[in-house]
Design a protein that fits this description.
alpha/beta, Alpha-Beta Plaits, TIM Barrel, 16 helices, 21 strands, about 30% helix
Length: about 500
């Protein structure tokens, strides 16, 4: 009944003067939008099925298609908007929780766009990265507060285990099951080529990808899917997932339709059954409990792997991070409220959590005040969109960043936010063999390498403009940032001055 009340949000417009009835649109669309009407003698479209993935538009050989936002509207009401009314109709018809994917699309402030980067000119001259060395290699993990020497005057090698990456960019957690095998392969190959890392997510590690162990971060989440001794040994680091930005306080849910034979074997669960991970780890209800898991994983891997703890950006994130820094963890990953996901309750995705910019600054400042900033490194994630965002994140206190949505866009994602349906026309968020085959992992890896390489060049250019020649010198250097259009409270939390000061 709810369908009777709703008009499609988007419409497929076909130029019949160009259309050759080649049926390419019908073959390309996994949602069944296009079909041939014999009575009319032409192709027709069911707008209600369109998820705006642009696959048909991109593949039409004669450019006969485009997708436009419908001009149909509800009577204007600032409180009861069309989106609110539509959601009520859908839930009244289904009685279910509305699911969404990818990041928060609402019109909340984007603080990256309200932060400007300072530049050097005379007394602190800029650096030309084409002619002078510029260091973007970094090490992630704890570090001593001071240099120590033994009785012979030799430097003590008392560093804990670290991750070493050539670029300040890592690929964030996306599980095998939520994304396709080909997408995972592209991420793994790109990470190896770039000298960085990709994250398995909570879905275990496919046996074919153990060859990329040196560039793999394996994740231990509340469901413990795919976790076993060989899996832990395969990772260069282990990440304990306590939360994620798209759905703080919520567990994971991978529909049974995505649990194919391969996914079933990797996750160690029955084929075709839903993979539901609980909201909390049922053995962690305090920092002391977390410490036990941290050291259990260290013990299980002979203290050879750094341990990451991933948390969502929430209101008390600084206090949480303080506890984690004392738990024995080597790295804290913070995920902001615009972080992507394969599926999340819409209300959670759009209303829970805080921006990564504010969370990152608050955590860095708290750890510095307590004198424990060197205990851990910080990785920031949750809608890192460009090299400028990366520079600003590091200046706010991050050591490196996680990217996920940007990586999927590089693979061809069109951000249609329908990942939960499992019918990704670009072969990314699907397990259907015919759709997965559309993504060439080698071509995808090349595009990822191109993206991160371009960003790394831009990072060097921006650091050079600031008169800074290394990522280490940029970390937490908030003097190089200025805010614009921000309140005094926002500037205070970010720890930066207003433009003009």
């Amino acid at each position: 009944m709810s369908g009777d009340f709703l008009y499609p949000d988007y419409e497929i417009i076909r130029d019949f003067s160009r259309c050759t009835v080649c049926h390419d649109c019908e073959r390309q669309c996994a949602n069944g939008c296009h079909s041939y009407n014999e009575k009319l003698g032409r192709m027709v479209a069911d707008n209600a099925k369109c998820v705006v993935c642009h696959r048909c538009v991109s593949m039409c050989p004669v450019s006969a298609l485009k997708i436009v936002k419908t001009d149909h509207t509800f009577k204007q009401n600032a409180n009861w908007t069309g989106d609110v009314i539509g959601d009520i109709y859908r839930q009244a018809g289904s009685g279910g929780v509305l699911l969404s994917s990818m990041g928060n699309p609402q019109k909340y402030p984007i603080y990256w766009d309200k932060i400007l980067i300072n530049a050097s000119q005379v007394t602190n001259p800029s650096i030309d990265p084409l002619r002078e060395p510029m260091e973007t290699k970094l090490f992630l993990g704890g570090r001593p507060d001071r240099v120590e020497y033994d009785e012979k005057g030799q430097l003590k090698d008392n560093l804990p285990v670290h991750l070493s990456t050539q670029v300040p960019v890592l690929f964030s957690a996306m599980s095998y099951g939520s994304i396709s095998r080909n997408a995972h392969e592209a991420l793994a190959k790109a990470a190896a080529a770039l000298g960085t890392y990709y994250n398995t997510g909570e879905g275990g590690l496919h046996e074919d990808f153990y060859q990329y162990a040196d560039n793999t971060i394996v994740q231990v989440a509340s469901g413990r899917f795919g976790v076993h001794k060989r899996y832990l040994d395969a990772g260069a680091a282990i990440e304990i997932k306590m939360g994620q930005g798209a759905k703080p306080g919520i567990g994971g849910h991978l529909p049974g339709s995505k649990i194919t034979e391969d996914v079933s074997r990797t996750r160690m669960i029955p084929e075709g059954t839903d993979a539901i991970s609980p909201a909390p780890h049922h053995d962690i209800y305090s920092i002391e409990d977390l410490r036990q898991l941290v050291y259990s994983l260290k013990e299980a891997t002979s203290y050879k792997k750094p341990i990451i703890v991933k948390i969502a950006a929430v209101h008390n994130v600084a206090a949480i991070a303080s506890g984690i820094a004392r738990s024995g963890a080597d790295i804290i990953a913070i995920d902001g409220f615009r972080g992507g996901t394969g599926a999340a309750p819409s209300r959670i995705r759009d209303n829970v959590g805080i921006p990564i910019e504010l969370a990152l600054a608050a955590v860095d400042e708290r750890l510095r005040q307590e004198g424990i900033r060197n205990n851990v490194s910080i990785i920031a994630g949750g809608s890192i969109r460009s090299s400028a965002d990366i520079v600003k994140a590091i200046a706010l206190g991050a050591d490196a960043v996680y990217i996920a949505t940007a990586a999927l866009l590089a693979l061809g994602c069109h951000l249609c936010r329908a990942c939960q349906l499992g019918r990704c026309n670009w072969g990314i968020a699907t397990q259907r063999p015919d759709l997965t085959a559309r993504l060439d992992p080698d071509a995808g890896a090349r595009r990822l390498v191109n993206l991160v390489t371009a960003w790394n060049h831009e990072i060097k250019e921006m650091m050079g403009g600031m008169g800074i020649n290394s990522i280490e010198a940029l970390r937490g250097n908030r003097l190089m940032l200025r805010g614009i259009g921000l309140t005094e409270k926002e500037l205070s939390i970010l720890g930066i001055k207003h433009a003009g000061e």
